[in-house]
Automatic annotation (TrEMBL):
Disordered: annotated span: 17-38, 171-203
Biased composition (Basic and acidic residues): 29-38, 177-203
Entry protein name: Uncharacterized protein
């Protein structure tokens, strides 16, 4: 038979292999795990996690994206498969690791919807603050309506202040349509105070 040591193994290791259901012929015929930086022992560990050498060879190797096959196993614990993870746009292309994608799902976001929405960082937001859009939606705001409206921070206000405005009966559309209070040295809060005294911005 083909000598085991031709692949860096002694015959004693071949005996150990056969204890795990491997024969020297099948081991020679399959693509050798160590060609991908794995020894046959690691292949055995892989199979304990439901991976076979054939499927592992056939899938795009996780380490091609900076992940080891062990991390692929962790992914699958979260309902991710190596194939779906490869096919989706990789979260780390936006500065996020796949683990953060899992966190996104806890917040009700999927990678597909997160990619499809206009990226927050295009408006000066970083991926670390994308969770704030989730907070926005708790206040009845969606990322699309927030992008489409005139951005409050263009007038020195954060989106949270817009929420405060609406508590006072102001909407972003009416606030944009009226002459901006700060053009007269007033903030929107002062406009509210004005109206308490019977004054309107127009008068």
């Amino acid at each position: 038979m083909e000598k085991p040591h031709q692949h860096g193994e002694t015959w004693r290791n071949l005996i150990n292999m056969e204890k795990h259901g491997e024969t020297s012929s099948t081991w020679r015929n399959m693509e050798k795990p160590h060609q991908h930086g794995e020894t046959w022992r690691n292949r055995i560990n892989m199979e304990k996690h439901g991976e076979t050498a054939s499927t592992w060879r056939s899938v795009e190797k996780p380490h091609q994206h900076g992940e080891t096959w062990r991390n692929c196993i962790n992914m699958e614990k979260h309902g991710e498969t190596a194939s779906t993870w490869r096919n989706m746009e990789k979260p780390h292309q936006h500065g996020e690791a796949w683990r953060n994608r899992i966190n996104m799902k806890i917040q009700g976001e999927t990678a597909s919807t997160w990619r499809n929405m206009e990226k927050l960082h295009q408006h000066g937001e970083t991926t670390s603050t994308w969770r704030n859009v989730i907070n926005m939606e708790k206040h009845g705001e969606t990322a699309s309506t927030w992008r489409n409206m005139e951005k409050p921070h263009q007038h020195g206000e954060a989106w949270r202040n817009r929420i405060n405005m609406e508590k006072h009966g102001e909407t972003a559309s009416t606030w944009r349509s009226m002459e901006k209070p700060h053009q007269h040295g007033e903030t929107w809060r002062n406009r509210i105070n004005m109206e308490k005294h019977g004054e309107t911005a127009s008068t």
